[in-house]
Amino acid sequence: MTDTILVETRDGVTIVTLNRPDKLNAFNEEMHLELRAALTAAGDAPSCRAVVLTGAGRGFCAGQDLGARDPAKMDGPPDLGVTLETLYNPLVRQIRALQKPVVCAVNGVAAGAGANIAFACDIVLAAESAKFIQAFAKLGLVPDAGGTWQLTRRLGEARAKALALTAEPVTAAQAVDWGLIWKACPDEALMEEAMALATRLSTGPTFGYHLIKEAIHAAATNSLDEQLDLERDLQRRAGRSEDYKEGVTAFLEKRAPNFTGKS
């Protein structure tokens, strides 16, 4: 690991920090690969029960670093589809598939793919000063990193089109009102609240959390009949887990449960 990503684990929570503050944590290839490696390690580590993703400095993530994309310094137009196929799309899929809760603490501007990476996380908290910007139209581009999917499903076609076409910023408070994110926090309290939430999740039935994520993700495309069948199958797996056994036992014994996250 170099210093484009910082990783710390405490109390069952792995804190992953985007660390290019001089570039507002804009993505280059190195940061992509290090972030994916950090998430893989968190997913594999028994000591990690939840993840917090945040940014260093005054911004969360400004999207793609355009420093290497100057048309005057290139032999021809870039193939941005390759960038998505090899970097952004695998990252979004990895965040969504991680079998542990992922809390995103948006500490400042989240622009372009930076906003959409945040939306890929399970629960998003933002500093009150933070803003979300679909900046793609200013460059003649299409929202990517899942942006068109997330915006349309969360906001509906009218708002999704307006945000994508105008690139107008959305404040943290407005993002809460519109259902884009979970909560807006005072700037100075953001990490405290994010850590409190992630720590609480880390002591919970993380195997069940994984199944909850799977069910909710599938609901976006399933019919009701398909979703009812999926709930049946997932509940069968949950009911056979050590966490369910511990949860019921603790309830009957009137004590706090000691979940292990075991299936």
How would you describe the overall organization of this protein?
The relative contact order is 0.11. The chain has about 260 residues and is of the alpha/beta class. The protein folds into two domains: about 200 residues, 2-enoyl-CoA Hydratase, Chain A, domain 1; about 45 residues, Lyase 2-enoyl-coa Hydratase, Chain  A, domain 2 (Orthogonal Bundle), CATH 1.10.12. Helix content is about 45%, strand content about 15%. Helix 1 packs parallel to helix 2. The model has no long low-confidence stretch (mean pLDDT about 95). The chain has ten helices and ten strands.
What is the element layout, followed by pairings?
Blueprint: E1 5-10, E2 13-18, H1 29-44, E3 50-55, E4 59-61, H2 80-97, E5 102-106, E6 109-111, H3 113-120, E7 123-127, E8 131-133, H4 147-155, H5 157-166, E9 170-171, H6 172-178, E10 183-185, H7 190-202, H8 206-219, H9 224-239, H10 242-252
Distance between the termini: 32 Å
Overall 3D form: globular
Extract low-pLDDT stretches.
none
What count of domains describes the coordinates?
A: 2
CATH third-level topology of the largest domain: 2-enoyl-CoA Hydratase, Chain A, domain 1
Strand order of the largest sheet: 1-2-3-5-7-10
- Count every helix, treating DSSP H or I runs of 4 or more residues as helices: 10
Overall structural class, as computed from helix and strand content, comes to alpha/beta
The strand count comes to 10
Overall mean pLDDT = 95
CATH architectural label of the largest domain = Alpha-Beta Complex
Order of helices and strands: EEHEEHEEHEEHHEHEHHHH
Q: What portion of residues is helical?
A: 40-55%
What's the main sheet like?
6 strands, mixed
What's the CATH H-level homologous superfamily of the largest domain? 2-enoyl-CoA Hydratase, Chain A, domain 1
- CATH class of the largest domain, please? Alpha Beta
Q: In what range is the share of β-strand residues?
A: 15-25%
Q: What is the gyration radius calculated from CA atoms?
A: 19 Å
